[in-house]
Task: structure prediction
Amino acid sequence: MNKRFDGSRDVDRAVDRLARRLPEPLEDLAWISYNYLWSWTPGGPEMFRMIDAHRFMLAGENPVRFLLNLPERDLLRAATNPDLLDCVAEVAQSMEAHMQRPAQRLLASGPVAFFCAEFGVHSSLPVYSGGLGVLAGDYLKETSDQALDVVAMGLLYRRGYLHQRMTLEGWQHEYWIEANTDQLPAVRVRGADGLPVKVTVPVWEGELSAQVWRVNVGRTPLYLLDAELEENGPLERWVTARLYEGSHEIRLAQYAVLGIGGVRALDAMGITPGLFHLNEGHPALSALEIASQVSTGLSGEPLELKDLLATGRDRFVFTTHTPVPAGNETYEPDEFFSVLGRAVDLMGISREQLSEESRIDPTATSEPLGFSPLAIRCSRSTNAVSKRHGEVAREMWNPLFASVGPDQVPITHVTNAVHLPTWMAPEMRGLLTTFFGADWERHADDPGLWSHVDEIPDIDLWETRCKLRLNLIEMIRSHIGVDRLARGEEVDHAESAFNAFDPTHLTIGFARRLATYKRLDLLFHDVDRLRGIIDHEQGAQFIIAGKAHPLDREAKEVARNMFAVKRGLDIPNRVVFLEDYDLRVAPQLVAGCDVWLNMPRPPLEASGTSGMKSALNGGLNLSVLDGWWCEGYNGQNGWAIDGSVVEDAREQDERDAKALYDLLENEVKTLYFTRDANGIPVGWLARVRSSLRSLGPMYSSARMVNDYVDHIYRANH
Result:
C-alpha cells in the first residue's frame, strides 16, 4: 500500500486545520474527532457531552461539525475545565495505544478488501439503512480492535437513507437530508499531484466520474465513492445521492460504481488486495473488473467469461445475507444492459456469457439477471450468516450446483455477531469490568470469562437493569412527545407522553425494518389478549420502531393498521411507536428493553442481530426459532416460538400469535413480577445470567471475525 496516497496524509491535513481552531489544551480533540474510534472508546462520547451536551446532540453527535460550530468563548471555557482535560487525556491515551499496535497480516498477498453497499459505523455518517450496514460497521470496528489488515469500500450517499415521519392515520412519509461533507469526519483522498483521486465508470452511454473519501474507523480505513462532481450531469450525480434508490437503473449504476469503481479506486491509491470480500451481491461487478484486467494481460485467443472468472476466483469470497427476494435483486436483460452494457463491452466481455453467469439456470433465456448468482460463481467460497440460513441457502441455490444434492452445495455459514464495545451500555460494561477484570473485552469470545456473571450479586445486576430501563424511558418520553406534536395530535395527548411508561413495568421492544415477513402484525393479532397483557397493575409496555422501504406498500399498510389498533386499545401510553429509528436511538432501545421480540416468518430470517445486542445488556429474547436464535436458544436463556414452516400462512400466524400471547401471559410476566422480600426478581435474573453466559461469547464480533479469518480468509492458504 502506498501510505502517502491512501488518504492518511489528507486526514493529517484536515486534523491540522481543525486543531488550529482549538485552544492548545484541546488540540487532541482534532485527531480524535477524525477517527470514529472515539465512539467506542470508554469516555469518548461523554467527553464531547462534557463540553456542551445539547449542542453535541444538535450536531448529530458529529464531533467535527460540533467543534467547527462551537463559539470560541465556549471552546475557551472548556479549555479551563480540569475534569474535561483529564477525560481528553485519558481518551487520547487509550486511542493512541489502540492505533500504535502492530498490524496483523491476514494474507501474504495483501489486505482483505471488504465491499458493501452500506456501512452503519455511527449515526453521524448516514450511509446505512439497517441490519446489513450495521453488521458491516461492527465488522470494521472489530477488525480495528484486532489490528487486522482490512480496507473497506462503499458509497458516500449524500442524502443517505430515508427519514421517517408518520401521519395521524399511521401512513409513513419519507424525507431526506443532504449531508454537509465539509463537516463530516471524512476527507477527499488526493494523489501525488495534489488533486483528488478520481475514477471513471462507464454507465448508460457515457462515463461517470467518482471521487474517493476516506473515513477512519479505528485502524481500518473506509473508502467511499462519490459522484457529486462538476464533470457529471444531474443523472450521474444522483447515482450516489440516496441509498437503495427505488429506480432499478439508478441501483444498477450504484452497483457499477461500487464494484467496478471500487476496484479502480483501490488501484489508483496503490492498494492491491489479496482478497475481496463481497458482502451481499451488490458489489459483484468487481469480479468482472478483475477478470477484464486478467484478460488485458493475456495473449492469444480471448478466454470465455467462465474461464476468466475462474482465474480470479481465488481472490473472492461472498457472504449472502438473506433468502428474501428483495435482497437478491434481479433485472430484465434490457434494463440491465441499458445501464451496464457499455461497461461490459469495454471490458471485452460477452453480454450473452455474462447473462448466463448471472442466471440461476444459464440456459433459461427468459430468466432475469441477478448479482447473487454471479457473486456465487465468481467466488471461491460462499457463506450464509447463520446455521439455519446455511441450510436455506443451500436449498435455495442448489440449482446452481445441479449435479449435487442440497447437502453437498458448497455454501457454509459464519453466524453474525455484534461489536460489544458499541452495543453494550456503559453501565453494563462497568458492571462486568468490576467482576471480569480490566481487559476482559479483549477476551470477549472466551466462554470461561462469562462464567463470572454468577459472581454478580442480584442487587447489582438488578440495579443496572433498572438504570438501563429508566434511561430508555426518559429517552422515549422526550421523543414521542415531539413525534405526536409533529403529527398534529392534540396538545393534551402529546403532553401525556412526558409521563408515558412506568419504570417498574415489563418493557418489551420490537424494532427492525418494517418488512411484511417480520410480522409486526402478530403482536396485534388478538387485541383482547393484548389488552389483558398491557392493562394491568403488573402490566407490560411495548416500544415499536422501524421503517418501511418507500416502495413497500404492504409494509406501510402493516404500520397503518398498527396505528389503528393502538387507537382502539385506548391505552396510548402503553404501546408507542418511535419514529425515525436509526443508530441515534438504537443503543438505548436494545439496552433498556427487558424483552426483545422477533417474530419472522420462518425460514426468512437469515440471522438478525438486534436480539444479540439486547442480550449483551441483560435483556431476554422471545423469538421465533429462526436465524441466529436457532443456535442461541438453550431453553434457559429466553423463550422460543416454534420455527417449523407451515404452508398455510394464516394457519401459521394463528399458531405463532397464540404461542406469543401464551408465553407473555403465563411465563414472561409471571417470572418478571415474582419478587423476593427485597423486591428483586431472582428467577428472572437467573435467566438473565444464563443469557449472558451462553450468548455473550458466541455473539460478540470477536468470534465472528475469528471465524472469517480461520475458516474463510485463510482457508486453503
Notes: The longest strand covers residues 206-217. The mean pLDDT is 92.
